[in-house]
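Researcher: Good morning. I'm working through a list of sequences from a screen, and I'd like to move beyond sequence-only analysis. For each chain I'm collecting a predicted structure so we can compare shapes side by side. This is the next one on the list. No need for commentary yet; just the structure.
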Amino acid sequence: MLREADVVVIGAGVVGLACAVELARRGYFVTVLERHPRVAEENSSRNSGVVHSGLYYPTGSLKQRLAVRGRELLVARCKRFGVAHQRLGKLIVAREPHELPQLEQLHARAEANGAGPTRLLDGIELAMIEDTVRGHAALLVEDTTVVRTQELVRSLVREAEALRVEIVVGMEVTAIERDARAESRDRWEIRVNDGAHESGGYVCDHVISAAGLGAERVARMAGIDVAQHGLVQRYCKGSWLALDERFRKAVGRLIYPVPHVAREAEGPTALGIHLTRDLEGFLFAGPDAEWIDAPDFSLDPSIERATRYAAAIAPFLPGVEPHHLVPLAAGVRPKLHGPDEPAADFVVRDGAPLGAPRFVVLAGIESPGLTASLAIAEEVRTIVEG
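Model: Good morning. Structure tokens for this chain:
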């Protein structure tokens, strides 16, 4: 049996739920399909909860624009719905004098990008505000917030349900085709499987692919040539290690190294292993960058990884040793570039020019995807309505 909807959103992570809420507010009847048994099972539950300021991304890029707008929307949502969050600020630390020009470039980009208040500090000023951190200089980025991601997800689910959004979990999309019964052929028929057998499907006017790690597969099912249109996703795994409780509240801010930048116009290819804290003050370090062939969330308990992490954060946390670090979580970033290629931007676009009318393509939604989620939803709504 085929059920009717105005819009079907594929994927119930933070971005998919945000899209569902945004469209339901506009009066669309929305169904969200999630292949896992619970919402937000993949990267939405495997990130640091950092709401980024938007300083890292090339000025004018989609990542920059949506991060800055998304930061504003997300903090406002947290206040409105009582989602736990705290504006902690971030320090990007130049450990050596030769890193200072790059830090100054980041400062200039922060101002150009609308990243909020920022200030360059010398080594003495740095030690005064974070007494464990040593470096030649640092960039203080004040508009960096940490949010309790699970509460954000719950707030989106509650609002979606209040708007009569249908959220169906444990339901994998197996086929996406034009509805042969529709005269215009602009409607879509979506077939689903509940893990045991084919379970009918949905007929809808619009499809939003918020499938995250499965975005390439979903685009292929809709008939899009992913290679031709630059939608082939690569997978980059990042692991987080938690620090022993003795380091609780050892730093008050998030502490980052100066990132590696391939070329100034491209933005960072990796932010480097950094220190993040949660709202209770517990610290964790990561993520690294491990290119893999397929999504894999397994944890590596090896002493080699802990040793490498300890060496990376030792300038920020004197006395840290490998045995102070234990595996916490791993996430997989869906990237639209390979390890030796320039960093790629988000893709949020109308599928009509790609041969898929009324199909919205979201691809390469890695960091700052959480930060940008509500702004991505606005962008999707504009495409659907326009």
